Amino acid sequence: MNRGEKENLLNGARILERVSASITNFKPSKYGYVMVGVMDDEDTQTQAVILEHPGEVCVFFPCTREIADAKRDADADMHATWIGPTGSKAHDGCRQAVEAWAPTLSWGIIKSKQWKDPNTVLSIWGYSLGGGLAVLAAMAMKSYHAARSINCYTFGALKVCDKKLAGYFSDNIIQSVQCVYLEDIVTHVPMWAVRVRGDLHLNEDGFVYPGIVKGFWNNVCRIAGNVLSWCRLKARFEAHDIHKYIAAIEAELRKP
Predict the structure, then answer these.
(1) What is the pLDDT of residues 80-111, one digit of tens each?
(2) How far apart are CA 92 and CA 159, in angstroms?
(3) Which residue among 13, 169, 186, 210 is the one 20 to 30 A from 202 at the CA level?
(4) Rounded to whole angstroms, how far apart are CA atoms 152 and 198?
(5) Is residue 66 predicted with pLDDT exceeding 60?
(6) What is the reported pTM?
(7) Which domains are assigned to the chain?
(8) pLDDT class for 180, splitting at 50, 70, 90?
């Protein structure tokens, strides 16, 4: 990942920080974007902002904010979905939400001035529960806009796919960066779901080992670290804070 890509990741994290705090008070011009619209679906209690700048339309899903969001987090059974290939299963709470408002989101994207250019890229971002929604939304939007390049960036996202759906994600989402702070408890639940391609591991010193985690010893170390760190439950919840992610990327950018 080059410096420009790291700076883009930091900018996205900062936007998610502000959007998670307050969508109504968010000023996109501070981050180099123009507001396209706000999606506020009352039935599923889902909020997102749609932004644009030259060559790109972006959707940002904030973290859990309402009681309904917390209930969706807890509704973690895997159920069949039209998102992806036949027979795919997804986290039921997130699946219900994305399937309900996918047409609304697609229409919101189409209204963007940048979308008139067929080369415009769609980037979908999310933090926490919003990260899970972002993963499913990226695949849902691929079904609506098959010819477009779609990227997905998440921070502390819960797992929302079964193996088949995760494979579909790998085949169809061009750029995937799934930021995982090493002790973040949310990124390991639900245990029966599968993480999608693109894990980028961080700690207070920056990037630990960028890219997809591969190799026997990397996996052994990762599992051992997870088992040991379950004993530090408070630290694991604190590691989910978006400010931890922002500080890690800033640390990485300070490296020579």
Answers:
(1) 999 999 999 999 989 999 999 999 999 999 99
(2) 11
(3) 169
(4) 9
(5) no
(6) 0.87
(7) 3-254 (3.40.50.1820)
(8) very high
